Amino acid sequence: MDHTKKETNRPPYGILAVLMIGAFIAFLNNTLLNIALPSIMKDLDVVASTVQWLTTGFMLVNGILIPTTAFLIQKYSVRRLFLVAMGLFTVGTIIAGIAHTFPILLAGRMVQASGTAIMMPLLMNVMLVSFPIEKRGTAMGIFGLILMSAPAIGPTLSGWIVEHYDWRMLFHFVTPIAAVIFLSGVLLLKDKKEKVDIRLETFSLLLSSVGFGGLLYGFSSAGNRGWDSPHVFLALIAGAIALVWFILRQLRQESPMLNFRIFKYPMFSLSSAITMVLNMAMFSGMLLLPIYVQTIRGISPFDAGLMLLPGAILMSLMSPITGRLFDKFGGRILAIVGLAITTITTYYLSTLTFDTTYTYLMILHAIRMLGISMVMMPVSTNGLNQLPARFYPHGTAMNNTLNQVSGAIGTALLVTVMSNRTETYAEEMAADAMKHAAGQPTAAALAEMKQQIAMKAMLEGINDAFFVATFIAAVSLILAFFIKRATPAEDTITEQPSHNRM
Description:
By secondary structure, this protein is mainly alpha-helical. Helix content is about 80%, strand content about 0%. It has 2 domains: about 15-190 and about 255-480, MFS general substrate transporter like domains (Growth Hormone, Chain: A, Up-down Bundle); about 200-255. Residues about 1-10 and about 495-500 have low confidence and may be disordered.
């Protein structure tokens, strides 16, 4: 049954405008927080492996909720879903803004995430059904220009706010804007939805939550507890079992919550694999660079944000260009060139020193963003283009789920690498320093030596994490050579209804 396809001559620009503004403020909120992580670590007295939960926890909630959006998009109107999403995001922003302990801040972020989880698949689905395939690249490019302008202004704005005000002002700044967008949705969105007789199966939702949530929790906890902790490996085992059960259950259902049969379309499967692997590598720069420039180099939050600005602007400006190039040439050449650039620049980020210049970092980051901008939207659009229209809600939900899961796993993996290698280097350097120390060092000399060792060890740990990210990016590059230009496939994948329940 097709609940998504709309025969329209003119795209619903009013609805798209409101949705894009809502998605923009959600994206802006994420980029605002990255620069503030070191300040939050200091103010709330938490370590890097703990503060990363503000990013990983956000993605965990997205990974749990996004699989339900295929059902929600078919069941409810765009207006209702947007208002629920924007309302949750606004409430979460208020909670985070008044937080004076880390658990409350994390709770606020998770409420924000529950709104964002609905927002992005909803917008992507409206885009897919509003534009014909030959204009989709350009439309997605304009969409990317608007959304990528958030990373362009976010870090610099965040740096200025953190430098002059408390980090909570980041949330106070977003709250009134989110409230205005919510009210605009109430007044401007008037679409109606036919009553659809489908329901969300509770047990499938439970399996999905345990599956995706268990995997994300396991990977995220490894940084704090270590891979040999029962909390880690039991969560990973439970998550893997639940996820396999969830997939098998969906394949047996007449109206699955998330339709895994879409992976029978080869270009969609390939695009999913490439974007997942690239996401894992991409989050290294978003998380590790702010820690390096502020904690190790002592660069102010504002200057750290300014350093990331050219790359974000370049990525934003490239979005409509890559959209047009995609419509003309397809995604293969764009992905190969973009991933080659990303892999090379990620390697150079693994050679950071105490003397790496500010200008060098700015240029290297900008080139890396150029590479990433040539990959994400074209590859995703190419994969979605192969799906029949009735699978659009499932395709967008699956893409967003996999992006969140891979981003969370990548973040957790790279922070774990950084934390473990930092600890190893610190122990080796401390033993070596004590071996070569002349006599018994004074308390002041010992404190200074510990500080130097801590900074040097963290630098080496960050370099090792970027080196791992280089190999991850290289995997995406290899996969890109198999991309072919996708056209809408015939709807040959039929549902196989069964009333058997596992």
